[in-house]
Amino acid sequence: MQIYKPELKFREYDVYRGYYCGLCGALHQRYGMAARWTLSYDMTFLVLLLDSLYEPEETRVRCRCGAHPFQKQLHISSEASAYGADMSVLLFREKCMDDWLDEKKLSRRAAAGILQGSYQKAVAIYPEKAKFIADQLEQLHQMEQAGETNPDLPAGCFGTLLGELFAWKPDMWEPTLRQIGFYLGKYIYLLDAYDDLERDRKKGCYNPFLKQGDTDAAALETACQNLLELMIGACADAFERLPLLRHAEILRNILYAGVWTQFRQIREKRAGLAAEQTGSSS
């Protein structure tokens, strides 16, 4: 969920960076230095979306931080930033435990342990969302352990999880926000699976595209792109139903252009590897 910088105005880019830094600052303020590990572009998008929709009171300051000790950076924070920080901690810690269960990554288990105190603090604030995240990731883990070959099912599970995070308040916008989160979650899961395909094949790890990848690489790429386009199309339809004025163009930049940056990079990387393999075999 990154921006596509070439199509952003300088002022818009500064605002986007301000929200990114504001979320980082909220994580540090609420949970300490280690919580900054959980900072992500995905949650920055959520904060920007919620701030644009609900228009809470903002605080804008320029200050130095550990990442930028010599030059002051714009920090934009609001009630939405605090919520994004809480959800970042909940999701990151549970995702670390899920990676530990799936691949026995010691680094992820260690990260989960370091953030345990922060996680318990976030659970106390949002116990229902914490349980929902844990339940969905457990369901996803079971699908992956069973070797589910239909990519839409595990993607839908993660989409349901992200939809819950997007539903900030029980109001008239909740169904639409859930839709946006649902389709974005499916997009993120499918894109990650496509990116990890060769690594998972070599390591013997679960990947919903493995069966398709064994038959026709070109067909897999086309099928994956079609799926991703469907997800973003449905997400954009829901997004356009929201009455957004503040920062709408930045959000559209991410949804209509930025989301494809990583897909193009993955496709180029895979094409390069395929060319290398063809050259070495000849």
Q: Could you characterize the architecture of this molecule?
A:
The chain has 282 residues and is mainly alpha-helical. It has twelve helices and two strands. The protein has helices at residues 10-31, 41-54, 79-103, 106-114, 116-125, 127-145, 152-166, 174-195, 197-203, 210-213, 217-239, 248-281, and strands at 59-63, 73-77. Strands 1-2 form a two-stranded antiparallel ribbon. α1 crosses α2 and α3 (79-103) crosses α5 (116-125). The N and C termini lie far apart (39 Å).
How many strands appear in the DSSP assignment?
2
Let me know the average pLDDT: 88
Helix content: over 70%
Q: What ranges have pLDDT less than 50 throughout 5 or more consecutive residues?
A: none
- Oligomer state of the chains in this structure: single chain
SSE string, helix = H, strand = E?
HHEEHHHHHHHHHH
SS summary, helix count: 12
Note the gap between the termini.
Answer: 39 Å
Q: What structural class do you assign from the helix and strand content? A: mainly alpha
* Bulk shape: globular
Percent of residues in β-strands: under 5%
Radius of gyration: 19 Å
* Main sheet: strands, sense, barrel: 2 strands, antiparallel
Strand sequence of the main sheet, in spatial order? 1-2
